[in-house]
Amino acid sequence: MTLQPDTFKSLVKEAAEQVIANAGELTALDQAIGDGDHGTNMRRGFQAVLAKLDTIGAQPLDEAVKMIGKTLVMTVGGASGPLYGSFFLAAGDALTHKRLPEDLAEVFGSGVAAVSARGRSQAGEKTMLDVLVPVLDILKTEAGRPDLIARVRATATEAVARTAPMQATKGRASFLGARSVGHIDPGAKSSCVLLCAVCSVLEARQ
Amino acid sequence: MSDMVGIVIVSHSNDIAKGTADMVRQMVGSEVKVAFCGGDPDGGLGTNVGGIMDAINDAWSPKGVAILVDLGGAETNSEMAVEMLEPERRGLVVVCNAPIVEGAVMAATEAAGGSSLEQVRAVAEELSAG
Predict the structure, then answer these.
(1) CA dist., res. B109 & res. B92, Å (int)
(2) pTM of the prediction?
(3) What ipTM score was computed for the predicted complex, to two decimals?
(4) Does domain B6-129 sit in CATH 3.40.50.510?
(5) Hey, are the CB atoms on A77 and B42 less than 8 Å from each other?
């Protein structure tokens, strides 16, 4: 797998369109345990990314990824803006000195570490990290396997479901205490939507 | 004027941010620079990193700026805004762990006396410790 500029643009476009298509569900999930704005915020952020798609696609990969991060930071308008923004800003920084696909786990790991630092959170607290961390583990341990993309999708999808029984201790959902149990986390779901969109584009180009 | 710490109020609601700033001005006077940012980039309930950066620059003082926030997203977005400032300003801005209205009034009162950024922050944060 090598990442051609047109592939990267397709990845960004599909990821943004999938977030926008799932905005209603993300908001419904957030209405159950948060403040009900996750879908609206993510849609606004990724609409801004789509509007800049040509500019983003014309940059070197590291700058392009950072531009996505900065766009999300400036437009999302909820906690998810700095969280997703920090992921892409850190991953873009890492890409300046790393190569794809061989350093994929390291680049993704930089993004995950930035989310963890920004949210002062770890896996197991019913957040997007409960999807990102298991996916990072797969990227580390199963790099190079021919079915890696399918494994990432399956891991992300299963990881979202595993947030349902968790009790939130971070973010707005933590206000609900035990009442957060039984609902999947909206941030975990949006992470899964993004990862699955990337998987679909990469599979179609294999 | 420039030798007093500036105060920035960040709320998910423009009404709360503006109302808090009005209370600070009435109770502390206009010598302390107070700026606020409320709502998301579309004007709905939420937070806005670009608007927070503008507010920090509006309230700027060489002694620094103390930010008071309402809920978690306002804190996360304020921290992000601080990191995106010019490097020489980043170390002179703090996000206080304090209730937004009481914290803003206490912080501005302390700032009006010419206190340092750390003193302003400490006075606001005593409210949470109690």
Answers:
(1) 19
(2) 0.91
(3) 0.82
(4) yes
(5) yes
